[in-house]
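Fold sample X.
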Amino acid sequence: MQLEGDNRLANLLSYIEFKKAVTLEELADRMHVTTKTIRNDIKELNGMLEGSGVIEGFGGKYRLYLLNQEYFRKCRDKIYMHDEYMNSPAKRYAYIMDQLLHADKPYLTEELAYEMNVGRTTVNGDLKRLRTMLEGYNVKIKGQVNAGIWLSGDEMYLRLFILENMYEMIYKNYELPEDVGEYIEAICDRYYLDTGTRDYFLRSFILMVDRISQGHTLKELDKKYHDLYETDPFKFARKVAKATEKMMGLSISQEEVIFLCLPIAGMRTTTNEKGRQLIEISEEVAELVIAIMDRIAYEMNFHISPTDLLDEFVYHLNFMLNRMKYRFYLKNPLLPDIKQKYPVAYKMAELAKKEIEERMSVKVIDAELGFMASYFSVFLEEQKVMGRPGYHVAIVTKNNMTTIRLMEIQLKKVLPDSTTFVFYEKEEINDKILSRYDLVLSTERLQVDIKIPVVYLSEIFDETEISRKIEQIRFLSKGEIKVKSGLNSLIASLVEPETFFILPKNLSFKETVEYLLDSLIEEEMITEEFRTRMLQREEKVTMLFDENIGFPHILYEGSSLIFALGVMKREKEEEGLRIVFLLGLPNNKDLDDQVLMKIYDEIISIAGNQEMVQDICQLESAREFYDYVIKNNDFFE
């Protein structure tokens, strides 16, 4: 359990400043408070900014408007420093741990209360909280209130607790001898260690030096740490230890060297090839990567193509396994943002976690899910760019060279570089001419009968909106699906009145899937073969997304994309299945993984919004679903 920054106003201001636009709900979730508290915090922040800036809400989203950049920086610095020391629980926890770490006899709680200028009740409450936090570390706070308290337990895990939870608050002012600091910086340079690894190594080094100086040394270590003896990270740490013994006159044992090598064995990443001299990749890790990709392909129907980054991912997993095995946990402050912005990649990371835990017998913490999702998001983006075809585009507009030039500049921002444009006036075109193109863009209403997509736009248009329209129409035209203009939701464009179903309650998920398939057969939309394949896939791997949502889907040999939406009406307090999205995706290159990724993206976003899940399960028709999406169109941007 890690302590987050306790200056909520500073955290709130920083988040709004960097996010640009954010909802009250997102802020409340981020800060672990209610929306009412966030409103009050924003009001307080606006007062503290003293007119240099203001946080205002518009269209459901809050933004920071800077009115005086120079004065804003001064106000912001004051807010960041605004912290009454002992009114902060996190700071009190750190103070207590600091005293216990450096005490040579039991510490009276009465003394702690006096030093912190708080009541005994507050100290006892803080101690209760600290004992809870220490439960997973094989460390206890022992003793009695009147007789004094002390730390007891495994020294290795006590150090790991400090590193993970409160190192900054206890050791932020600790200074090493100048020659020692210069030596560590030089050897890190020599081995090309990245900034993050240097920082973790330096923290471990300072903590080790302080604990040895206090007479608290590592003795017998858990057997799993024995695997690190004589590895390259161990040899690196031993080199540092020997130099430290000479410079500081300390005696550093083999067990201390093991502790010192943990940041190297579990480093976050390497910056270049030379930095990999401390790394040895096992065949087992390489096989694990293949197994992860196979699992994603099987359960999600996504096939990740190898890229240059795949080697980096192999190295990352190697380090991660060491971190999990030796319990050297890293913080990932970007985890909430990654989960929100890259839901499909995060889903892939969750599958990777399952594969890793099953094959390697380690527990993967949430922070590592965020790191893996970052890799998967890059894989998906690179694959998207590689698979993005150039278009042969016909543009129908009035023959004005300035207008034509302006449109061409705008379109080049949203279409692939290999796209070719041919401009026509309305009088010059007919069905035969336009049918030669992949896409038609027009500023005038056309009376044509062609199968290729037609997108209407003005001479000056919103590039983001047009890009979304073009991508959506490309997906849907390949699957022979009608486009519903203006909707940001691909799912809403896929749902038709005849493919919206109200599901019987109290069916199992398998029975619900069977019900949907039977209904689609009655509508003559699928074949018995399709039904059989879907049920066979469900037998092998359940497609129940979570307790509320199911997503049965298959690739099949057909030309049309099949999509159905089933809702099961439930009261808010009821448990059980609420929504089922059923998808049959033609197994061809035209309808590529981007369609599936977009659908996954929307489903994951819906699943993460319990209010929306409950609203959708109460709808009674496709028309009501369209109306609901229109009202919440911004949600699907």
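Fold sample Y, listed below.
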Amino acid sequence: MNNFKKITAIACLVAVAGAFAMSAAPVSENAETVSAAVDSNNDDWLHAEGDKLIDIYGNEAWITGANWFGFNCTENVFHGAWYDVKGILEDIANHGINLVRIPISSELMVSWMNGTPLEVSSVTASNNPPYHVCNPDFVDEDGETKNSWEIFQYVVQYCKEFGLKIMMDAHSPHSDNSGHSWELWYGKGGVTTDDWIDSWVWLAEQFKNDDTIIAFDLENEPHGKRGYDDACPDIMARWDDTTLENNWKYAAERCGKAILDINPNLLIMIEGIEQYPKTEKGYTFETPDIFGASGDASPWYPAWWGGNLRGVRDYPIDFGSADYNDQIVYSPHDYGPSVYAQTWFDKDFTTQTLLDDYWYDTWAFIDAEGIAPLLIGEWGGHMDGGKNQQWMELLRDYMIDNRINHTFWCVNPNSGDTGGLVDSSWSNWDEEKYGLFEKSLWQTDGGKYISLDHQRALGTAGNSISITEFYGGKVDPPAVTSTTTKPPVTTVTTTVSTTAKPKETTSATTTTTKPPVVSSVTTTVKPNGTITYGDLNSDGKVDLSDLTLLSLYLLGDVKLDAEGIKAADTNGDGSVIITDLAHLKQYISKDPVILGPQ
């Protein structure tokens, strides 16, 4: 754990009492109040350690989400907004999805940044009880539909209320239902590279103190390939060490650094490109196609749009500092034969043939070799009972076995390539497709879905727990580093299954460094054997010194004896976690609370 994240954890614990007191308040119908009441700790940020995502308390997290498109299209709002958007998001959370990837156009973000939000269409907004109420938050007092920026802010608040996290995805430069077909992040809708970067930076500024939006996917599916006879080499995304405008690596580094300068906690998703030259044969992005050449004869390795991450071996993304690089997640897209009949589907394919023929050298090596975390940003397809369904099951199981993050494409029923998780009513779920997908959701052995929020479980169905609850009702403190002395190391060895290279499965050992114990505090038992709840230092008073001591204990900077731990359990529920800190703060602040078992 680096020093920045250590400081963040301390700040969160110091502020947590007020936030928990707020979360216990009655929920208002006002959206801004709802979002503040649910979770304002700002402690749900994630970062990378090796190939895993880790929360600020040192616990592993697993993003298992889904896509819902529309803000990228000409409607400038979720498709399906002719129904109840809040209800759909609640349903998504109730189905165990812990993050929503929201495609958006850069043109729309630029309009928000410039204070001229694009209007929405195909949205039903009415608040005229008892006759018609639909998306009442989206209509103003004059009965007019609010603009796209106002509606988006309500979407963020709804997600916060239901424990959902958000990944924003610049799906195309221009607002267009087929905008994803454009190869680059600039050049359409009047959007320049600077506009693209500036609008991302602006959005980071707006939500830098709100951990509902935890990730930015910088650009959806950069792609393009060399045409025959050297045609159009500038209308393709490349990945090398040049500073050309269409060099995706160079653009992503510029953009990612600028975003992290504003909010260093955001995960930055880096997708791949389409073609990558066979550099081992001396080919470069200046090498044209060889007419009619394919396979070994071609100078290029093919891939899905946004799927080719071979460039990470030769030219890994570098944001210029270790802390910033801890926020990098590589995010390929992968699809089955119903989207396009790629050559690796020509055989009776298996997980091993997919690894050999495509997955490993294209993107899987990044996870298998511990370079960085992966998030498969799009995967999905039609349930055909055949090869496409077989591919979905193989990829799903590979992601489960290797704990690879992912966001399914998609919730929408109106995706021609894949279909959706819901039907055209936006309320009935495709149980067969959801059944296939559901196995890949983060959940306990008992089937409880796990949210990425430390306070809030997912949805309202009672079938989820928070990440705090998943880790036993407590959080492990971050490691403490020192410039003068190294902390003692405790080695914990576990066996995990990971793919080391295409044709081998090996066991790996994970070494966990636990934080040092800085000091010990002894709590004296009273003669009658009772403990005064909250009096951690046994001085006969419950005051700020005990609050400070509990904060340090939760951070791992002091050690309490058994009686001190009992005293630290200020609400008497059998565990010592951040809620006890909140409870103690309320008591010291003279709020009407009782210390001890409730």
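Sample Y note: The chain has 16 helices and 21 strands.
Also: Residues 3-12, 14-38, 475-529 have pLDDT under 50 and may be disordered.
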